[in-house]
Specification:
Elements: H1 2-55, H2 61-130, H3 142-150
Length: about 170
């Protein structure tokens, strides 16, 4: 019964940890989606500006080149930000994975200790159930042996009432 309760507790603990990891993964996915949305908006603005400049009659080649250079710089900055965020999220996931491994190892050790305690308890119960001469349940087997050697029923021998002193 104790083993099954401890196993159920460990399963709930694992489930809770998995839920935490899933939530963190969901948050990272949402962050990545936001990044993709912002880059899509910037891309749309870039192409709109490019179309406006290309349709204008008074454009200069130098202005167009400057705008293209600025847009490329913005794109490279956005790409660098994406890379930084992805690396940060990757580090977080690795840390979470290491933490979950440590928790899993700790749970395995606790389960082993629980199993050992349950085995010892079952052994003592089975041993004590076979010891019918000892009236007290759940006591170590050496106690009845010690008590039987100490307590011996011997009749008191008095040779004369005058020899008894108080």
């Amino acid at each position: 019964m104790l083993i099954s309760l401890s196993l159920i507790f460990l399963q709930y603990l694992k489930l809770y940890h998995i839920i935490i990891l899933r939530n963190q993964c969901q948050l990272t996915r949402e962050k990545l989606n936001k990044i993709h949305l912002t880059t899509d908006v910037l891309d749309q603005e870039y192409y709109q500006l490019k179309q406006i400049l290309s349709s204008s009659m008074y454009k200069n080649d130098i202005e167009e080149r400057l705008i293209n250079i600025e847009n490329e710089q913005q794109r490279s900055l956005i790409d660098q930000q994406r890379i930084y965020i992805l690396e940060h999220l990757n580090r977080q996931l690795k840390n979470d994975l290491n933490a979950s491994k440590l928790i899993n190892e700790s749970l395995k050790r606790r389960l082993n200790c629980t199993c050992q305690i349950n085995n010892k308890t079952e052994y003592l119960r089975s041993y004590l159930s076979t010891q019918k001469s000892w009236p007290f349940p759940y006591c170590p087997p050496w106690i009845p042996a010690k008590l039987s050697s100490i307590h011996e029923e011997k009749p008191l021998k008095i040779s004369s009432p005058l020899s008894v002193s108080m």
